[in-house]
Every structure is written in C-alpha cells, then in structure tokens.
Amino acid sequence: MKILISPAKSIDMTIDIPVPQVTTAQFLKEADTLMNKLSKLSAGKLEKLMHVSRDIAELNVNRNKNWTLPVALSETSKPAVTVFTGEVYRGLNVSSFDTADFLYANENLRILSGLYGILKPLDLLYPYRLEMGTKWAITPKTKNLYDFWGLKLNKALTDELATGEVIINLASSEYFKAIQHKQLKHRLITPVFKEFKNGEYKVIMTYAKNARGSMAHYIIKNKLSHPEDLKAFDSDGYRFDANLSTADEWVFTR
After folding, report:
1. How many domains are there within the chain?
2. What pLDDT score does 89 carry?
3. 52 belongs to a structural domain
4. Helix (H) / strand (E) containing 107
5. What whole-number distance in Å separates Cα of residue 142 and Cα of residue 144?
6. Model pTM?
7. Domain containing 11: what range?
8. For residues 59 and 18, what is the distance between their CA atoms, to the nearest angstrom?
9. Which domain of life is it from (predicted)?
10. β-bridge pairing 167-169 and 188-197
11. Which pLDDT value is given to residue 18?
12. Mapping DSSP to helix (H, G, I), strand (E, B) and coil, where does residue 244 land?
C-alpha cells in the first residue's frame, strides 16, 4: 500500500528526532524553479497571496531569500516528517517511531507538497510555506500549482506502485487534487472520519485531520500490506462503519 497525506502549514526546525537515514526529494529542480519566483515576492504580496499575517509573511520572505537546495542534514535542512506540525502530524506521532517504522514509512508514506511536489518522509526539506491551492499565477500560461505540477505527481506515484497495489488517500482534497487521481489505474481507498453530533454523523475537520494521522500511524506501526486490515483501526474510539461505507470510501465513526 502507498499512503498519501498532506503537509502542514507550520514547520518547526527546532525539532530534532533521530532517523536511520535521510533521502533527497525527487523534484528539487522544480522546487528551485518555484522558489526562484517566490523569493522575488515582498512581504506585502505574500500576505495577500497566502492570506497570512504580516509576521508570517515576513518570516517566509526571509526563508525564501535564504532558501537552498536541501541536500545535506543541517539545522536548516531536516527530514520532512520530523518537522511538519499540526493535527495530522500529532496523530502520526513520529517521535514514537523506531528504525523499522521510519524505514517502512519511507517506503510507503508519501507527503504531497506545493513546493516539493511529493516527499518521502525522510526527504530533507528547507522550511517553506506554499499551499497547493494558492491562487498564484506562476507564469502567464501556468495559472496555479495544479497547472505547474500537471501529471508529474501522478506519474511519480504510478512509477512506484506495483501491479495491484492500493493507494490509501489520507490527504485533504486540496492536495489530493494534485495527483489527478482519475488518471490512476490503481485502486484508491479514501477513509473518512465522522463524529456523532446533534443526531447525525458529521466530519469535524480538526478531528478528521488528527484521525488521518492516527490511521497512518496505525498502518506504519503494524506494517500493514492488505487494505482490509484497515477495517480493524480503532484508535481514539473510531470504528469502521460498513453501513455508511462504499467500496472505495471507508467511513469510521465514533
């Protein structure tokens, strides 16, 4: 199985988690192209483009101007999965990973990224902020990041998949859109997490994000290889609900 997750908006480069190895992102050339353009934007332009505060815009202006290709482990270049923060990564809880967990994750977990395209967990990254859905015209003919990445992420994922291998989509719709999944020939399962509230089951995004990370954690810790085994997921009180599920959208409720 290949597992897809989204990145986080926030990155904490003060985190130091030991890992068994580091790897290099596949699309550094493309990341460099994007950053060359992004680094020319002022704090005011970033503030409007990314809908962030002036402090966050200024932080990222500084990051962008000092951006370098992340090819060696350093204080400013660390494994992606160890420095992303937020609900998904709280659920993923990589601080609990041992060597076998990190190696399994690097083989099977993929992080979609506006800047880097697609990352293995142990790929090095230099801190950045660039959401996939940002309404940024990179060139007159490239109206957004979906145009920029085109079918590259789809092909990168397809090239890694063995015959019959299944994709578990734990990414947000913003990032999942970037892989152009309708072009994929492999089966794709999307887990959905719902809470019982006011007499009905609803997706509450904060909880759903954490649950996506928890499910990725569950897959990695148990070294799962068969999708059906996901139905036993019961972290944080969730249970598979066959009545609400379809063949490729598996609903977990609590």
Report:
1. 1
2. 98
3. no
4. helix 99-108
5. 6
6. 0.96
7. 2-25+78-253
8. 26
9. Bacteria
10. parallel
11. 96
12. coil
Range 25-28, long-range pairs (CB < 8 A, 24+ positions): 25/70, 25/116, 25/117, 25/119, 25/120, 25/123, 25/124, 25/125, 26/117, 26/118, 26/123, 26/156, 27/116, 27/117, 27/118, 27/152, 27/156, 28/69, 28/70, 28/71, 28/116
Structure tokens at 178: 């970037």
Residue 163 lies in a domain: yes
Tell me whether residue 109 is in a domain.
yes
Instruction: Give the count of beta carbons closer than 10 Å to the beta carbon of residue 242.
Output: 9
What is d(CA 113, CA 178) in angstroms, rounded to the nearest whole number? 9
Give dist(CA 222, CA 168) in Å, integer.
15
> Using CA atoms, how far apart are residues 91 and 193, in angstroms rounded to an integer?
13
Q: In whole angstroms, what is the distance from residue 55 CA to residue 43 CA? A: 9
Give me the average pLDDT of each 10-residue run along the chain (254 residues): 97 97 98 97 96 96 95 95 97 98 99 98 98 96 97 96 95 96 92 96 97 98 96 97 98 98
**For residue 64, is it within any domain?**
no
